[in-house]
Amino acid sequence: MSEVISVVSRNGAFQKTMIMEEFSSDESEDDYNMTGSEDEEEGEEGAEKSSSKPTSKKSSKNIDSELMTPGELITSDPIWMRGHGTYFLENDTYSSVAGRVSKVNKLLSVIPLKSRYAPETGDHVVGRIAEVSNKRWKVDIGGKQHAILMLGSVNLPGGILRRKSESDELQMRSFLKEGDLLNAEVQSLFQDGAASLHTRSLKYGKLRNGQFCQVPNSLIVRSKNHTHNLPGNVTVVLGVNGYIWLRMTSSMDLARDAPPGGSTQVSGGEASGRAAGPTGAVSLNPNASLSITRLEEESSWKIYSDENDASITNQLKQTISRYANIIKALAFCEVGITHERIVLGYEASLAYSDVGALIQRDNMEALGADVLNAERMRGNAE
Amino acid sequence: MSQFEVYSPEGLRMDGRRWNELRRFETSINTHSHAADGSSYLEQGNNKIITLVKGPTEPALRSQLDQTKATLSISVNVTKFSKFERSKSTGNTKNERRILEMQTALVRTFEKNLMLNLYPRTIIDIEIHVLQQDGGILGSLINGITLACIDAGIAMYDYISGVSIGLYDTTPLLDVNSLEEAAMSCVTLGVVGKSEKLSLLQVEDKIPLDRLENVLAIGIAGAHRIRDLMDTALRAHAEKRVLNASKR
């Protein structure tokens, strides 16, 4: 359900369309949402439905485009359920924020133009430890409240079979201390909307070898994968909360990007080689030259190390800052930030030899335009 | 007509306005996007005000944590250079009684208007900087806060628009400036949206009771006009943002 809401809202937010005088019937929208259960209403609507189906995506964009400001009457119709961003007095529903109306089935809500990050289960976020307290860390993820990371939801050095002891509670700061950055997944939400995180996978955990960068959370679109390897030996973690981490590509990152089954695979073990571990960790390609087993990697203290690898060259640091400035430029142009756009931005940015020049206003605007242009060109070419 | 005549027989005020005219009203929204969640810059006549809304966020102190709703804290910083003459007070202006009173009035006004129950265990911190002041400052602060809170995406019941009205002899004067404010008794109103509900009524001077209704009527009309001006500015800003986003 929540996924549907976010899709609809995005369509509304990115699409400037005419403002409608009155609410149109919600048929087309039902179309859009009830993809599975169309057969029930074959009867009179059948013809209309089949004709409207190809355009259903478009019509759902046209709906929900009305701009509301606080205190504005949305509807007097009592059939609507009141969602976020609305309040009601008797039968009248009013908007409580400035934003676009979103209608999903009978749920009416107003999505504010801008608001703090609201965590959802399964989100991949980047956060910063704000506080160490009893058996838990408080993590700043840019939301309304700090997220909670329980001691039990992290991988501790010593392997998965290791038991937690009291000494772990006493040395929590040796794993993660105030100011440390980590990436994690939202495990669940509390009653009041605060998030509970976990890092029980090798792709999550403490972050190092890189640079932090922040953009408005509305610019990051939820997708299947939030970690991307970029040209120039850099990996980006696009947190859904708008916190971004740029780092040197590690062997782990390379292993994750290798095609399933591994083209370099020599003999059997295809199934076992790529299978996700019991912790949901992506295991490394057994043929990789590093030949560390997942267990070793997991059990090593290295995952909580504060030291950067010595192998980071100045060249690489330059590239990382270049990416950070590209992201700043994209954010400045209010362009949604995706893997493809960062790569396009990188290609466009190579025209500037000085990395610092990228965040001059003119250059930021030019870069944003370049990216959109390049995207359009590729779209046409295909 | 003397320059210092508050209200000339021709019906003109010191700055050339008629009795029912507002001062120049200009706003920009989301002026400090990196420093705060919501921000606004407001010019109402010669009042120039920056408002920053930070939050809802985790409170810094345990004492600010409320299990049922957000804590609202408003701090007003009136700069020393904001008046004609530089303020000579050596101490911290923040603790002046006048400022504290203003903060309390603002908190009480907005506590009722913002839906604080939606943000339990958080704090909403509103920071106001008065760069220049020229009368009717409390009303301008209210307008600034309203816009900044909307920008921050904080749920509220309605706009609150603030305006000051003076009573010169029997004539109410809308949106007084500092000279008029000094010359006559004034009332400050905070009006909820397009309704006739008052969320703030501040009367610091004596006002004949039989004239009060008249004063309130013109005040409410003026506040509605300000609400429309804010709404227009907000919509223009929102359209621009949406357009930006749709350009891709």
Automatic annotation (TrEMBL), chain A:
Location relative to the cell:
Nucleus
**One example GO MF annotation:** RNA binding
UniProt-listed CDD domains: KH-I_Rrp4_eukar, S1_Rrp4
One BP term from GO: exonucleolytic trimming to generate mature 3'-end of 5.8S rRNA from tricistronic rRNA transcript (SSU-rRNA, 5.8S rRNA, LSU-rRNA)
Entry superkingdom: Eukaryota
**Which family is it part of?**
Belongs to the RRP4 family.
Residue ranges occupied by any K Homology domain in the UniProt entry: 210-250
Mind telling me which PANTHER family this protein's record contains?
EXOSOME COMPLEX COMPONENT RRP4 (PTHR21321:SF4), PNAS-3 RELATED (PTHR21321)
Q: Which GO terms describe its cellular component?
A: cytoplasmic exosome (RNase complex); nuclear exosome (RNase complex)
User: Lineage of this protein's species?
Assistant: Eukaryota, Fungi, Dikarya, Ascomycota, Saccharomycotina
Exosome complex component N-terminal domain: residues covered: 68-104
Xref: Pfam families: ECR1_N, KH_6, S1_RRP4
Ranges annotated as biased composition (Acidic residues): 23-45
Identify this protein by name.
Exosome non-catalytic core subunit
Q: Say where the protein is mainly found.
A: nucleus
UniProtKB/TrEMBL annotation, chain B:
Q: Which residues form the Exoribonuclease phosphorolytic domain?
A: 21-154, 158-221
**Which CDD domains does the UniProt record give?**
RNase_PH_RRP41
Zinc among the record's keywords?
no
One GO term describing the cellular component: cytoplasmic exosome (RNase complex)
Q: State any single GO MF term.
A: RNA binding
Tagged with keyword Signal: no
Gene3D superfamilies per the record?
GHMP Kinase, N-terminal domain (3.30.230.70)
Broad class of the protein's primary localization? cytoplasm
Name any one Pfam family assigned in the record.
RNase_PH
The record describes its quaternary structure and partners as: Component of the RNA exosome complex. Specifically part of the catalytically inactive RNA exosome core complex (Exo-9) which may associate with the catalytic subunits RRP6 and DIS3 in cytoplasmic- and nuclear-specific RNA exosome complex forms. Exo-9 is formed by a hexameric base ring of RNase PH domain-containing subunits and a cap ring consisting of CSL4, RRP4 and RRP40.
- Which family does the record claim for this protein? Belongs to the RNase PH family.
Write down what this protein is called: Ribosomal RNA-processing protein 41
Specify the species. Answer: Maudiozyma humilis (Sour dough yeast)
